[in-house]
Amino acid sequence: MDVPKMWDLEVLGITDPIEKENESLLEEETLTHFKETIRLCEDQRYEVALPWLAGHPALCDKYDAAESRLRTATKRLINENYLEAYDNVFKQWESEELEQLKSQSIEIMKEGAFELRCWASNDSKEDQDKQSVYDPIGFTAPALLLPKLLMQEAWRGKIGWDEVLPVELEHKYRLWERTMHFMSKCAISRRLFAENYDDFTVHIFTDASAYAYAACAFLRCEFKGQVTVKLMAAKARLAPMKKSTIPRLELLGATLGARLAETVDSILRTTSKTYFWCDSMHMLKRVRYLHTLRSNLRKRFYKEYLGELVRSPKVASRRKIISPGEIVIVESKNPNRMNWPLAQVIELFPGKDGVERVAKLRLASGEIIRPLQRIYPLELSASDHLIEDHHGTDIAAQNPGSTATDVLKEGKKSRWGRPLIPVKRLNL
User: Fold this and answer.
1) pLDDT tens digits, residue range 36-77?
2) What b/e string do you get for 77-114 counting C-beta neighbours within 10 Å, with b at 16 or more?
3) CA 275, 277, 281, 282 torsion: positive or negative?
4) In the chain, what is the greatest distance between 2 CA atoms, to the nearest angstrom?
5) At 413, is the secondary structure helix, strand, or coil?
6) DSSP string of 287-339?
7) At what angle do helices 246-268 and 281-300 cross, to 10 degrees?
């Protein structure tokens, strides 16, 4: 609590008449200034001048400070022999009319509400050889593998994107570039299937090395003893920068071949036999091990687990569980399930197919109709309660010191292990 503020005149409702007159005059001057300076712009927007206070000191001038900084920067450029290069940059900008391009771009983009703030340019000469080969099918995968390896080697050496390549890497790249003209002499038939064929099969080949792994798909067509083979697609990937063993890379190659086979099958849209070829003994051992493991798990499932399966109450048909007169739980919008209301089933309504899907319920507030998917039976139904009550009465008769409720609490538990509380019927 601010004690001095409690004794302020304004808080007590006492104001100085002179200050009140000054405030009213200031409000009138503000309104007059608004009416005199408001104007409608060409883009249908209103513009008002800023209200300057009378007698306010003029804003300080930064001309001297800016001139001093300019002289300091010029002196530094002269001492470091950068003044001529700095002047050449601006002359190049003037020759290319970059200033005009900048202002025109800002005006054009401003019309679409895209205000340009930052500028960055790229050299078109550097982009001539980047991604110049487009081959989604993978016919040129062997030829494009070498530049990918060189790129990975440059990345491993932490060489920047705009830095000059080492002599050894540049020499390897130039050698690869000189051999690229041989690709123009390679001819690939556009026709995949033969004109006539009796049967065809798909063959997937996979292989791996310490630097890369690849997979290719071939189509083999057979017609009257004559066989034609066509390359369908190929994929190649570089080995990870983190060193991996050859068996692991062969597994990656097999995965790549499996994905390639799925793509080929989706394109052919016909059922055909697919063969996978791999010369890795480790891969063959792994396939045999997986086959043996799968068969052992299947046998164990049949012998040990299948006979112990119990029908879950969640999967059981609620049409057989719920019957008229049962006490059920009705689902509501309340996220807390403990607050869902209890109701009594009055009637079940079957559909045209004879299956009961809707029930009429009686709540404490009235009667409602709900689908069976929104009705949940209690863990202990009324019939079970009567049976347990009957057994409990017999046991209580044998043991005068015990009651049916005590027997129920000691013996009956839910599937989650919690003791069940006897159901209390509602007087509805």
Assistant:
1) 888 888 888 888 888 777 677 777 788 888 999 999 999 998
2) eeeeeeeeeeeeeeeeeeeeeeeeeeeeeeeeeeeeee
3) negative
4) 116
5) strand
6) HHHHHHHHHHHHHHIIIIIGGG----TTTS-HHHH--TT-EEEEP-S-S-GGG
7) 70
137-161: pLDDT as tens digits? 888 888 888 888 888 888 888 887 7
What is the average per-residue pLDDT within 213-242? Answer: 88
Q: Mind listing the pLDDT tens digit for each residue in 34-45?
A: 888 888 888 888
Q: Which residue has the tokens 């499932």?
A: 301
User: What 3-state DSSP class applies to 279?
Assistant: coil
- Indicate the angle between helix axes 167-178 and 141-156, nearest 10 degrees: 170
pLDDT at 367: 92
For residue 108, pLDDT beyond 90: no
Q: Packing angle between helix 404-411 and helix 382-398, nearest 10 degrees? A: 110
Rg (CA), the chain: 43
